[in-house]
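Researcher: Next sequence.
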Amino acid sequence: MRSILTAVIAAIEAVAVALAGLLVVAVPAALLWVITFRMEAEPAEVVAGTFAAWLLGHFVPLTFELSPEAAVGLGLAPEALAFTLSLAPLGLTLLTLLLGARSGSRFGRRGGTGAAGVLGGALGFAGATALVAPFAGDLTAWPFWSVVAVPALVYGLASGSAFLLAAAREGHPWWTASRRGLQRGMERARLPGAAAFPARVAEALRLALAALAALVGVSAVAVAVALVLGYADITALTQQLQLDPLGSTLLFLLHAAMFPVALIWGIAWLSGAGFAVGVGSSASPFGALLGPLPALPLFGAIPQGWGGFGALAPAILVFAGLCVGVLFARRPQLRRATWPVALAVTLAAGLLLSLAVAALCALASGSIGPERLAETGARPWIVGGLVAAELGGGLLLGVCAGRVDYSRLRETLPEALAGIDAVRRLRRGSGERPGGADDEQRLDEQETVELTEVAAGVRGEHADAATPRGAADPDRGADPDRRAGPDRETEPGADSDPDRETDPGTDPESESDALARAYSWDGRLDDEAEPVSRPRSGWRFPRRGR
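Model: Next structure:
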């Protein structure tokens, strides 16, 4: 009983949404009929045109017949023409989508009974369309059941999508059970990442929505710039229409309804694919080839292209994707994930973005007149593929750049530079190496040992640096004249090896002293340093038992 009541309430709300859309079209039409035409036009034609415009806003194509006089007024041959008008004013469609999504989101917070609200809303909108369609007369090009089904599908998709998002956010039992069933299926199929699959999908969806929002924002800025630069042509076209204040207001409302179409065409223009306004025409950042256009002032804002600088338009999309990718790379879901997972999420977001852009381009295409004007808009799959390559590539670069640990890189770089500098100082200090091949091999082995100590963090800090000069070494006995280290001095005849041979070509300063002097921080040996009067201050690891 509760589900039935929810469905009834949703149906009533859907009828109210349809009525709101009808009022948006009916009020300007009634004012035009009363003030401009002074009620001289047939009321049936005004009503038919009003309901037909509402159906066109929900993707129902219309058919029109032009008399020879009307064809001449449009710059066509003086003969009767019949054509189809299928380019939807997406501003009116957007109103239905937003109200439908609001209804579905509210029903999604009610649990399982909200599904009945989604179904009831679609049926209610279909009933409202069934009441409206007969008044459109012969202007509709489709059969009656198609005219009723398509607007109901538009409302139902908006309501159902919002309902699913609300169910996922609220964690409905049926949604949780479906998610767990999917995870069990992935585990049985031995697919990796089954446990984290829902979280990865949600992150890819968020990234795709953020990229789509950035894309729409960039397109809005581009359209605004085009309107400013084309102000002269727009004004000239408006003056040619010679409209009164009411006509100017209605023209403004028409442009407001067509503004979402201009945004989608702006996306296609920025991608480099461009769009067409008639068969054989094109408008892209690399140039514009346009034929005769209808006297709609909005067409005066179509840019002529940037010529050799046309590649800057796709570069803007790459930069926008780079910014979004860097921002999302700071999120824990991508920062803590492994590199393969982060790249897979980014690629999935790019794929979702390309599908969304292709769908938008398909909705913003259609016929606006007879003959060559039967093809208008962008090619969906070409634009979707280019946006995936440009904006998706920017997302990938941004995520990779955002995941790099620059702090670790800054810590590693000075150590690498210090090692290189030590090698250079060693080579400069050694000079020519006397003694032949045996001495060169011995010195190379000593250099390898010294470089290993530098990389391990020894950096010339020996244990006897904190011991005063002349102190006894417990490991060496009680003789104070014996000092640890390879650089100690030996008196003649004391502890000398009679079998050892002295090379007469060797410098008084041994090779070990040269190496120690090269790696000391101030160029002095340990024996030449000032005696340490007190131990170094600093933290020491506590002894056991304390």
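Model: The first helix runs from residue 2 to 36. DSSP finds 17 helices and six strands in the chain.
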